[in-house]
Amino acid sequence: MGETAEHRLKRLKMRSWRRGTKEMDMMLGPFADAELDGLSARELDLYEALLSENDQDLYVWMSGQEPLPAELAEIGGIIRKFHKLV
Fold this sequence. Notes:
By secondary structure, the protein is mainly α. Helix content is 65%, strand content 0%. The relative contact order is 0.15.
């Protein structure tokens, strides 16, 4: 039996708030709480891939110090727009 949509959202929200660095907790946690319920299945897959990256890389990408990898650019752009970083 697969994971329910409700359980997946709960798991992704928890992973968003418990990253390991406060900076990424504060970027991903509020985004997850406010926006994950409205993302498509494809966007959730992209978000889950983003969560598999390490915080040091994520911070550099999300802060705009380096460009996001192509495969994460769409979901990264959604997060940056949420935080008005674009």
